Amino acid sequence: MEAIINKVEQSGLIDFNLEDYYPKAQRVLFDLKDQLWQGLILKETDFRNFVKANNWADYQGKYVAVNCTADAIIPVWAYMLVASALQPFAFKVVFGDLNKLEETIFHDALQTIDVKPFEDKRIIIKGCSKYPVPPSAYLELTTLLRPVAKSLMYGEACSTMPIFKK
Asked: Where are the domains of the chain?
């Protein structure tokens, strides 16, 4: 009986799975709309009292996006107060929606990659994921690896889309 040969393993292709850079901590949106007086304006005294009284420890170990989904003008200091209150508890605090938060999380994770092991390698950036990987992460990874890689492909070893080749 012949041994089964894994041709993908022998090909020297490196699988890069962005899913490996997905931190499992919960993502939440802190929406300032709930603090607006009559859904229109932010009263400084009321808002400062809310910030002092709120249990910010509820955000312990979470990624937090801070935004206002109501059509209202929010002063910058309000976002700063919330960030200051969240900072001791949350892993990360960003201004924007949950999509912006996800992009920031991946950006931070990709900045930790040492590209040296990928020099002159043929790399497949895995396309399917059980976690939500934003398109910006694929773009950023491409710009990070292109200068060093021999080739970049997208997809799975059985069906790749060529992206770059030296």
From this structure: 7-23+106-165, 27-90
